[in-house]
Design a protein that fits this description.
Distance between the termini: 24 Å
Largest sheet: none
CATH topology: Amino acid/polyamine transporter I
Mean pLDDT: 92
Bound molecules: phenylalanine
Strand content: under 5%
Radius of gyration: 22 Å
Number of domains: 1
Number of strands: 0
Shape: globular
Length: about 500
């Protein structure tokens, strides 16, 4: 028997964490980022970002999370109660990600069904934007509700609730042990098939053709750091929460290395598949690969259906498999986005896991209906940019300050080193988490804000400010409400 909020084994922890990391960012974001930032040359900033930021930061978040066998908000309050507000800010921001992620999951669910009969028709672009999303750039679109999308999203919420409201190991632990290996297997099948397509080598040559001259360009370094933050779900209090659920004998450094490796292997593997398929399509259609590459929704819901249209009967197997992969990758990620807020609420207000999850799922599902309108697509883009470029980067900076400085990361070194079977941490690690990271991320953070202010439309600015207000107010309410549990300000420490 395990506790309600405890992993049954180290394997559950690793797989759930890989499930959180491997998501839409690996499938739809990474291939495009790699391609548009110098191809093969991108590997240099990418590897630097993993070694300098990804691994050291994850070790920090795991270390402090493990030390406090309690939620993010409770641990921060315990480190210094003046910072409680920040302890709620990140879990709430991550819950906001959950709400819009549920829309993408819903769209993908619809495509999974359509893919059995290529239901998107001959023009996937207009099908996606006009027929399905009925996209509108004006906020008046909020009044046009789209029931099909709403139903698809609610099915997603029901699945999430069903898994999350159970005890941790019986729900998320068990599901991760099945879905994450399955995700890797299906991906191997899809990529294996893609590599055999005629024209695959054209796409791959295009992908890896290094443009070394870009190495001196600041933007590709920003892109690499941004990708690793998003892909490894850094600074989101997720790694922290998952580590706080571990048992007493965890080898956190080795776990970090396995998770970072699995995530990066997956996204590079996905890139091989995506570009083989684009190479094939370029050969069939005579369009240059460069003109076919898009990112995000464009790649998944427009470029892929276009490929499936020219792929003949193979598409009837490959299509459903592909949309299933995206669904599983999205599901295992979205499941992680509810944990930090849920555990923090359980700790402060004394609710059970099951009741908290039920309340959060109902609230999330209700708010997510904003995305089931004609304005949903635009709104999603704005909220996503705000959360990723502004709120979460701020979160990483804050975590570095609170964990590395105020908590004092040095306290963790002996403990981390006594369990590890692989590398040991030392002075270099402290220097990275105390100095290098906060400075590097601050630079990226300022760059992101300038980007939103300079390039955003008026509507984007207004919705960014509104999103920020919602985030700040919800956080404030959770902070000032009185705790219902007696030990709220006293978290147990393990190290
Ligand atoms: N890491 C996930 C991905 O690569 C994205 C994610 C973001 C997951 C935020 C959880 C929370 O898609």
């Amino acid at each position: 028997m395990t506790d309600k909020n405890e992993w049954g084994s180290n394997l559950s922890f690793i797989l759930a964490m890989i499930g959180s990391a491997v998501g839409l960012g690996n499938i739809w974001r990474y291939p495009y980022v790699l391609y548009s930032n110098g191809g093969g040359a991108f590997y240099i900033p990418y590897i630097v970002a993993i070694l300098l930021m990804g691994i050291p930061f994850l070790i920090l978040e795991y270390g402090v999370g493990y030390n406090y066998k309690s939620s993010f908000a409770k641990a921060i309050t315990n480190i210094d109660s003046k910072w409680q507000y920040l302890g709620w800010l990140l879990p709430v921001a991550v819950f906001m990600i959950m709400i819009y992620y549920s829309a993408i999951l819903g769209w993908d669910g619809i495509y999974m069904i359509l893919s059995f009969f290529k239901g998107w028709g001959a023009d996937p672009n207009s099908f996606f934007t006009t027929t399905l999303l009925q996209s509108s750039d004006s906020y008046m679109g909020l009044t046009n509700f789209i029931p099909l999308i709403a139903v698809a999203m609610l099915i997603g919420w029901a699945i999430i609730w069903f898994i999350s409201h159970k005890d941790l190991e019986k729900g998320l632990g068990k599901v991760s042990k099945v879905l994450v290996p399955l995700l890797f297997i299906i991906m191997i099948v899809i990529v294996g098939f893609s590599l055999t397509l005629p024209g695959a080598s054209i796409g791959l040559a295009e992908l890896f053709n290094p443009d070394w001259s870009l190495l001196g360009n600041f933007n590709i370094w920003m892109a690499a750091f941004g990708q690793i933050i998003f892909s490894l779900s850094l600074g989101m209090s997720i790694a922290f929460t998952y580590a706080s659920y571990t048992k007493d004998d965890a080898d956190l450094i080795t776990n970090t290395l396995s998770i970072a490796f699995a995530n990066c292997a997956f996204e590079n593997f996905a890139a091989l598949g995506v570009f083989s398929i684009l190479g094939y399509m370029s050969m069939q259609s005579g369009t240059a690969v460069a003109d076919l590459v898009t990112q995000g929704t464009g790649l998944v819901f427009i470029a892929y259906p276009t490929v499936f249209n020219v792929l003949g009967n193979w598409a009837l197997v490959l299509g459903p498999l592909f949309f299933l992969t995206v669904y599983l990758a999205g599901l295992t990620s979205i499941l992680s986005t509810i944990e930090p807020l849920s555990f923090s609420i359980q700790n402060k207000f004394g609710l059970t896991r099951s009741k908290t999850m039920t309340i959060l799922c109902i609230t999330g599902a209700a708010i997510s209906m904003l995305y089931a309108t004609s304005y949903g697509g635009s709104l999603l883009g704005y909220v996503d940019t705000f959360i990723n470029q502004i709120a979460l980067l701020f979160g990483i900076i804050v975590e570095c300050i609170v964990f590395a400085w105020i908590f004092d990361a040095e306290k963790l070194i002996d403990f981390l080193n006594s369990r590890t079977k692989t590398i040991k941490v030392g002075k270099w690690w402290l220097i990275i988490v105390k100095y290098v990271l906060p400075i590097a991320i601050s630079i990226i953070w300022i760059g992101g804000m300038i980007d939103v202010i300079n390039n955003g439309s008026m509507e984007q600015l207004i919705f960014t400010v509104l999103t920020a207000l919602v985030l700040l107010i919800v956080t404030l309410v959770l902070t000032v409400r009185h705790a219902k549990t007696g030990d709220w300000e006293n978290a147990d420490e393990r190290v």
